[in-house]
Design brief:
With 202 residues, the protein is mainly α. It is 67% helix and 9% strand. The protein has one domain. It is built from six helices and six strands. It starts with a helix and ends with a helix.
Length: 202
Protein backbone atom coordinates (compact mmCIF):
# COMPACT_ATOMS: atom_id res chain seq x y z
CA UNK A 1 0.00 0.00 0.00
CA UNK A 2 2.72 2.49 0.94
CA UNK A 3 4.70 2.19 -2.33
CA UNK A 4 1.41 2.79 -4.19
CA UNK A 5 0.73 5.88 -2.07
CA UNK A 6 4.23 7.30 -2.51
CA UNK A 7 4.29 6.82 -6.30
CA UNK A 8 0.84 8.39 -6.64
CA UNK A 9 1.78 11.25 -4.28
CA UNK A 10 4.86 11.96 -6.41
CA UNK A 11 2.76 12.23 -9.57
CA UNK A 12 0.16 14.49 -7.94
CA UNK A 13 2.71 16.73 -6.22
CA UNK A 14 4.48 17.44 -9.53
CA UNK A 15 1.11 18.18 -11.12
CA UNK A 16 0.07 20.28 -8.11
CA UNK A 17 3.28 22.32 -8.19
CA UNK A 18 2.84 23.07 -11.91
CA UNK A 19 -0.83 24.04 -11.57
CA UNK A 20 -0.07 26.28 -8.59
CA UNK A 21 2.68 28.05 -10.52
CA UNK A 22 0.45 28.74 -13.55
CA UNK A 23 -2.46 29.93 -11.39
CA UNK A 24 -4.96 27.09 -11.73
CA UNK A 25 -5.37 27.20 -7.95
CA UNK A 26 -3.75 28.80 -4.92
CA UNK A 27 -3.60 28.35 -1.15
CA UNK A 28 -4.61 30.74 1.62
CA UNK A 29 -1.78 32.00 3.83
CA UNK A 30 -4.37 32.66 6.55
CA UNK A 31 -5.41 29.01 6.93
CA UNK A 32 -2.03 27.32 6.38
CA UNK A 33 1.05 27.16 8.61
CA UNK A 34 3.19 29.17 6.20
CA UNK A 35 5.77 26.41 5.74
CA UNK A 36 6.03 25.68 2.02
CA UNK A 37 7.99 23.14 0.01
CA UNK A 38 8.21 24.65 -3.43
CA UNK A 39 4.94 26.45 -4.08
CA UNK A 40 2.90 24.06 -1.91
CA UNK A 41 2.14 24.34 1.80
CA UNK A 42 3.17 21.37 3.93
CA UNK A 43 -0.54 20.61 4.44
CA UNK A 44 -0.88 19.92 0.71
CA UNK A 45 2.01 17.46 0.83
CA UNK A 46 0.37 15.65 3.74
CA UNK A 47 -2.99 15.63 1.91
CA UNK A 48 -1.65 13.07 -0.59
CA UNK A 49 -0.72 10.69 2.21
CA UNK A 50 -3.58 11.14 4.65
CA UNK A 51 -6.52 11.16 2.22
CA UNK A 52 -5.40 8.06 0.23
CA UNK A 53 -4.66 6.24 3.51
CA UNK A 54 -8.21 6.94 4.72
CA UNK A 55 -9.67 5.93 1.35
CA UNK A 56 -7.67 2.69 1.39
CA UNK A 57 -9.29 2.00 4.75
CA UNK A 58 -12.73 2.50 3.16
CA UNK A 59 -11.72 0.25 0.23
CA UNK A 60 -10.54 -2.58 2.50
CA UNK A 61 -13.51 -2.30 4.85
CA UNK A 62 -15.98 -2.39 1.93
CA UNK A 63 -14.27 -5.58 0.65
CA UNK A 64 -14.43 -7.12 4.13
CA UNK A 65 -18.12 -6.40 4.74
CA UNK A 66 -19.39 -6.83 1.17
CA UNK A 67 -18.19 -10.37 0.60
CA UNK A 68 -19.49 -10.71 -2.95
CA UNK A 69 -18.23 -8.46 -5.72
CA UNK A 70 -21.72 -7.19 -6.53
CA UNK A 71 -20.56 -4.93 -9.37
CA UNK A 72 -18.28 -7.49 -11.06
CA UNK A 73 -20.66 -8.13 -13.97
CA UNK A 74 -21.31 -4.39 -14.40
CA UNK A 75 -17.80 -3.00 -13.96
CA UNK A 76 -17.10 -2.81 -17.70
CA UNK A 77 -20.35 -0.91 -18.35
CA UNK A 78 -19.65 1.45 -15.45
CA UNK A 79 -16.11 2.02 -16.72
CA UNK A 80 -17.33 2.79 -20.23
CA UNK A 81 -19.90 5.24 -18.88
CA UNK A 82 -17.19 7.02 -16.87
CA UNK A 83 -14.84 7.06 -19.86
CA UNK A 84 -17.48 8.61 -22.16
CA UNK A 85 -18.41 11.31 -19.62
CA UNK A 86 -14.77 12.11 -18.85
CA UNK A 87 -13.74 12.31 -22.50
CA UNK A 88 -16.72 14.52 -23.39
CA UNK A 89 -15.82 16.86 -20.52
CA UNK A 90 -12.17 16.92 -21.59
CA UNK A 91 -13.11 17.76 -25.19
CA UNK A 92 -15.76 20.33 -24.28
CA UNK A 93 -13.44 22.10 -21.79
CA UNK A 94 -10.23 21.50 -23.76
CA UNK A 95 -9.00 25.05 -23.04
CA UNK A 96 -9.49 24.75 -19.25
CA UNK A 97 -6.36 23.28 -17.69
CA UNK A 98 -7.91 21.61 -14.64
CA UNK A 99 -10.91 20.04 -16.36
CA UNK A 100 -9.09 18.93 -19.50
CA UNK A 101 -6.10 17.38 -17.74
CA UNK A 102 -8.02 15.72 -14.90
CA UNK A 103 -10.71 14.22 -17.11
CA UNK A 104 -8.24 13.11 -19.79
CA UNK A 105 -5.91 11.44 -17.27
CA UNK A 106 -8.82 9.71 -15.52
CA UNK A 107 -10.23 8.44 -18.83
CA UNK A 108 -6.83 7.17 -20.02
CA UNK A 109 -6.24 5.27 -16.78
CA UNK A 110 -9.71 3.72 -16.96
CA UNK A 111 -9.22 2.75 -20.61
CA UNK A 112 -5.93 1.06 -19.73
CA UNK A 113 -7.35 -0.84 -16.75
CA UNK A 114 -10.58 -1.84 -18.50
CA UNK A 115 -9.44 -2.80 -22.00
CA UNK A 116 -5.71 -3.50 -21.78
CA UNK A 117 -5.03 -4.78 -18.29
CA UNK A 118 -8.59 -6.10 -17.87
CA UNK A 119 -8.48 -5.43 -14.14
CA UNK A 120 -10.90 -7.62 -12.17
CA UNK A 121 -11.10 -5.32 -9.12
CA UNK A 122 -12.84 -2.33 -10.73
CA UNK A 123 -16.26 -3.36 -9.40
CA UNK A 124 -14.93 -3.28 -5.86
CA UNK A 125 -13.12 -0.03 -6.59
CA UNK A 126 -16.33 1.68 -7.73
CA UNK A 127 -18.03 0.69 -4.47
CA UNK A 128 -15.11 2.06 -2.45
CA UNK A 129 -15.04 5.22 -4.56
CA UNK A 130 -18.76 5.79 -4.06
CA UNK A 131 -18.46 5.42 -0.28
CA UNK A 132 -15.31 7.59 -0.18
CA UNK A 133 -17.09 10.47 -1.91
CA UNK A 134 -19.01 11.37 1.24
CA UNK A 135 -15.98 12.01 3.49
CA UNK A 136 -14.03 13.42 0.53
CA UNK A 137 -16.76 15.99 -0.15
CA UNK A 138 -17.00 16.89 3.54
CA UNK A 139 -13.26 17.53 3.77
CA UNK A 140 -13.24 19.33 0.42
CA UNK A 141 -16.25 21.36 1.50
CA UNK A 142 -14.33 22.68 4.48
CA UNK A 143 -11.28 23.45 2.34
CA UNK A 144 -13.30 25.42 -0.22
CA UNK A 145 -15.68 27.19 2.17
CA UNK A 146 -13.00 29.10 4.13
CA UNK A 147 -11.42 29.01 1.51
CA UNK A 148 -8.16 27.18 2.17
CA UNK A 149 -7.85 26.27 -1.52
CA UNK A 150 -8.88 28.90 -4.06
CA UNK A 151 -9.71 27.80 -7.61
CA UNK A 152 -9.34 29.88 -10.76
CA UNK A 153 -12.70 29.32 -12.47
CA UNK A 154 -11.18 30.21 -15.84
CA UNK A 155 -9.35 26.87 -15.65
CA UNK A 156 -12.23 24.58 -14.60
CA UNK A 157 -15.76 23.84 -15.77
CA UNK A 158 -17.25 26.53 -13.52
CA UNK A 159 -19.82 24.16 -12.04
CA UNK A 160 -19.82 23.93 -8.26
CA UNK A 161 -21.31 21.70 -5.59
CA UNK A 162 -22.54 24.56 -3.46
CA UNK A 163 -24.02 24.49 0.04
CA UNK A 164 -24.29 27.93 1.60
CA UNK A 165 -21.48 28.44 4.09
CA UNK A 166 -20.48 24.76 4.02
CA UNK A 167 -19.17 23.82 0.59
CA UNK A 168 -18.18 25.43 -2.69
CA UNK A 169 -16.59 22.48 -4.47
CA UNK A 170 -15.76 22.42 -8.20
CA UNK A 171 -17.49 19.46 -9.86
CA UNK A 172 -14.12 18.71 -11.45
CA UNK A 173 -12.94 17.50 -8.04
CA UNK A 174 -15.07 14.36 -8.50
CA UNK A 175 -12.83 13.38 -11.43
CA UNK A 176 -9.77 14.41 -9.42
CA UNK A 177 -10.88 12.12 -6.58
CA UNK A 178 -11.50 9.29 -9.06
CA UNK A 179 -8.00 9.60 -10.51
CA UNK A 180 -6.32 9.92 -7.10
CA UNK A 181 -8.02 6.84 -5.65
CA UNK A 182 -7.87 4.74 -8.82
CA UNK A 183 -4.15 5.29 -9.24
CA UNK A 184 -3.54 4.30 -5.62
CA UNK A 185 -5.75 1.20 -5.80
CA UNK A 186 -4.48 0.02 -9.20
CA UNK A 187 -0.85 0.27 -8.07
CA UNK A 188 -1.68 -1.48 -4.80
CA UNK A 189 -3.48 -4.32 -6.59
CA UNK A 190 -0.59 -4.69 -9.05
CA UNK A 191 2.01 -4.90 -6.27
CA UNK A 192 -0.18 -7.21 -4.18
CA UNK A 193 -0.72 -9.64 -7.06
CA UNK A 194 3.02 -9.73 -7.83
CA UNK A 195 3.85 -10.40 -4.18
CA UNK A 196 1.27 -13.18 -4.11
CA UNK A 197 2.76 -14.81 -7.25
CA UNK A 198 6.29 -14.54 -5.83
CA UNK A 199 5.14 -16.15 -2.59
CA UNK A 200 3.42 -19.00 -4.43
CA UNK A 201 6.52 -19.65 -6.55
CA UNK A 202 8.57 -20.11 -3.40
Amino acid sequence: MFPAMLITAGFFLIWDEFFTRIGVWSFSEKYTLGFNIGSLPIEEWLFFLIVPYCCFFVYFVSIYFIKRDVLAQYQRVISIAFIIILLLAAVFYYNHWYTAFTCSASAILLIYLTFIKRAIYLGRFFIGYGISLLPFLIVNGVLTSKPVVMYNDAENSGFRIFIDGIANIPVDDLAYCLLLLLMNVSLYETFASRNKRDFELR
